[in-house]
Amino acid sequence: MKASWKSCIALLCVLIACIAWSPAVLAVPAVAQTAIGPIVAAEIGPLGTNKTAEQIANDPTVKAAIGAAWNDSNADNATTRHEEGGWIYEDADGNLTVGRWPAGNRSGINATPPMPPVGGQVVGEFHTHPNWHPPDGKDEAGTEWKQGPSDKDKNAKTPGTTGIVKDRSGTTSY
Ligand SMILES: [Zn+2]
Fold first, then answer.
1. How many angstroms does the Cα of residue 122 sit away from the middle of ligand 1?
2. Partners of 88 in the beta sheet?
3. Residues 10 and 93 both lie in one domain
4. Angle in degrees, CA 109, 88, 63, rounded to 5
5. Mean pLDDT of 52-67
6. What are the φ/ψ torsions at residue 168 (nearest 5 degrees)?
7. What spacing in Å lies between the alpha carbon of 129 and ligand 1's midpoint?
8. CA distance 160 to 117
9. How far is the CA of 101 from the centre of ligand 1 (A)?
10. Do 96 and 18 lie in a common domain?
11. Does the N-terminal peptide bond of residue 135 adopt cis geometry, omega within 30 degrees of 0?
12. At 99, which CATH number?
């Protein structure tokens, strides 16, 4: 009987300790809890304004660069048409800038090593697909081309960044 009372009191003490402890834990601000541990970027790193894919695609600097790349692609010339593209950088102030790649070939382009502005980072890339023709993708020679980004394009893109493909149907983000 005596031992049973002791364990009963011990249990009561544990219960009281639990009740006293839980509000203290709940009172810890959420910010303090998330500040501890590794920082995992949902989109891209902590620099700048963390723009969405839509904001990147609609940025005037990016739009102008894609337009210039499309012009340089000679899309209307069946023999000289080729892919053009480049990196989209975010600078230290959160503004977007572009670094073009050397001209590609008829159906491919190689990215150069990124050279973001000091304090900046890569947030995206763009390139042109001058071969696809509406409505079925077939060019003058009857060769059928895929609309939008290829699987290779998707696999080559750095996760968390925005890819943009420009063809005759418009721009597609991926
Ligand atoms: Zn492509």
1. 18
2. 98, 124
3. no
4. 90
5. 95
6. -65, -15
7. 6
8. 19
9. 13
10. no
11. yes
12. 3.40.140
pTM: 0.73
The pLDDT of residue 3: 52
**Structural domains counted in the chain:** 2
Is residue 44 domain-resident?
no
Do the domain assignments include residue 150? yes
**Domain hosting residue 80, numbered range:** 53-173
Residue 11 Cα, ligand 1 centroid: separation in angstroms? 67
Same domain (yes/no): 89, 15: no
- Residue 158: per-residue pLDDT: 87
Residue 116 within a domain: yes
pLDDT digit string, tens, across residues 13-46: 444 444 444 444 334 333 333 333 333 334 556 6
Query: Would you say 128 and 153 are in contact if contact means Cβ atoms under 8 Å apart?
Result: no
Q: Is residue 66 part of a domain?
A: yes
Return the exposure string of 1-29: e unless at least 16 CB atoms fall within 10 Å of the residue's CB, then b. Answer: eeeeeeeeeeeeeeeeeeeeeeeeeeeee
State residue 56's pLDDT score: 94
